[in-house]
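G., the chain you wanted modeled:
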Amino acid sequence: MKQTTSVSNQLPDPRATRRIGAPSGPRKADLRRATLIEAAGKLFVEKGYEATTMDEIAAAANFAKGTLYHYFANKAELLGALKEGFENEVMERILARVESCPADDWRGRIKSWIDAAVDAYFELKELHDVVIYSLGMPFRHAMVDAEITRYLTKLIHDGCEAGAWQVDDERWTAVVMFYSFRGGCDEAIMGTQRAEDVPNKLNDLFLRILGVYE
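Predicted structure as tokens:
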């Protein structure tokens, strides 16, 4: 299991509607926007969000400062675009892994959620820390309605509907499982657990929580 990648490999390619006044041409505008987001992401990881300036972002992207402001009014907008791209990347990985399982293989689908989420967390941890902790709010607020937790809630709900397990509160169960996943990965990053052991340990824990451990 990989734990580190280059900063450039951690940066998703988020797309969004361009700001008024941005150069014409949808494809060219998207490419410029993506280049600016990637440059910002690299600098935020290397220098920190607060220490990075808009001038530095424009220079790193090889654009004039005015071009940067056509697309993003400030660093907060760039951080928001990075967060959206990060979340989309993580969810694409999870969905691809889970949906590769047979529809009735509920334990396999839970294991696939774990495997994909753990891989993404380890590989994108520097970018994760930037987009989550640079928001200036407690982690619990940043993750209050995260797609990764909502999807896990749906997975638990669908498993209940299929009779694979039974829980009293699907969202509560998903939140507890999510924080267990986060804590397990962080322990490995801190060196108190072996990274390669984390998926299986989490799988055992998740199945116990769902009441289907054997």
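Residues 1-6, 14-18 have pLDDT under 50 and may be disordered.

Shout if anything looks off.
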